[in-house]
Design brief:
This protein is an alpha/beta fold and about 260 residues long. The chain folds into 2 domains: about 40 residues, no CATH class; about 180 residues, Rossmann fold (3-Layer(aba) Sandwich). Strand 3 and strand 4 form a beta hairpin. The longest helix has 22 residues. The structure holds flavin mononucleotide (FMN).
């Protein structure tokens, strides 16, 4: 392929219409050919740069409630760093629990239940670089729905989430947030997901909708978490190995 064809083809297929017009105009001037070739290569490189993305899961059935507000506070810092985000909410429909049917192990279909957000999370995590899970505290634990979804997600999609940083946040009226946080973190900890922390445990207080905004320390904790997550992701994506070296897994039923 001669230089002109190369440039035309690259400009059209990689850079898209936004740069095609200036590129084509420059084509008329032979003196600019070298410069043009370099610029086109640069554009191709830039356009293949994938934006870092964090998938955020809101386990609360309450729309725009306190968990959502706290997640938005984390998101505000990720956005500042140019990181793409998406918040998925569990909603208030029925959520299935893991029935240990083995479908996810024996097929490529993911979890056998397709009605709630479990398989959607798995699909989105294929291209996302990190995960943040927010939960309201119910009886000192994450709410039942988010636990059921996360258990199914991790059982069916371990390979998708591994090596991707993760954080949990827990929102409560008065107590039980640290236990809830610990429960969520325990899942990340056995999925090879580096757990991201903040200046304090990732918790904030609020009862009625919007009240969590009054917890100024809690809100700051969320912003710090967002900054810490952005910092870690930027470091990871700056280069180096994709993942640490691992031994082949040993699986035992119990210690003997
Ligand atoms: C079923 C249920 C159980 C709850 N249990 C607790 C609890 O153990 N500790 C607590 O501090 N708050 C508890 N709460 C209050 C919620 O955690 C609190 O209102 C939270 O802000 C709700 O978040 P959301 O607006 O995102 O749904 C409970 C609420 C419900 C509905």
């Amino acid at each position: 392929m001669d230089r002109r064809d190369f440039i035309k083809k690259t400009a059209m297929t990689v850079a898209g219409t936004a740069v095609t017009a200036p590129v084509m105009a420059m084509l008329t001037n032979n003196e600019n050919m070298d410069l043009l070739e370099k610029e086109t290569e640069k554009t191709a490189l830039n356009s293949s740069d994938k934006k870092i993305k964090v998938l955020m899961i809101n386990g609360s059935p309450r729309r725009d409630g306190n968990t959502y507000i706290a997640l938005k506070e984390v998101e505000s810092q990720l956005t500042k760093h140019g990181i793409e985000t998406e918040i998925l909410q569990i909603g208030n429909g029925a959520v299935n629990m893991c029935i240990n049917c083995g479908n996810c192990r024996n097929t490529d279909d993911g979890c056998v239940f397709d009605e709630d957000i479990c398989n959607t999370i798995a699909t989105k995590m294929k291209t996302a670089d990190a995960m943040i899970v927010g939960s309201p505290v119910y009886y000192g634990q994450p709410n039942g729905g988010i636990l059921a979804v996360m258990q199914r997600l991790f059982y069916s999609s371990g390979q998708i989430v591994k090596d991707k940083p993760a954080a949990a946040i827990a929102i409560c009226r008065r107590g039980g947030a640290t236990a809830a946080l610990q429960t969520l973190n325990m899942m990340f900890e056995m999925m090879n997901m580096p757990v991201v922390t903040s200046q304090y445990w990732n918790i904030a207080y609020g009862s009625s909708k919007g009240e969590v905004k009054l917890d100024t320390e809690g809100m700051q904790t969320m912003r710090t978490l967002g900054n810490n997550m952005a910092w870690l992701l930027e470091k990871i994506h700056a280069g180096g190995k994709d993942a640490p070296e691992r031994e082949r897994g040993v699986y035992m039923n119990f210690i003997r």
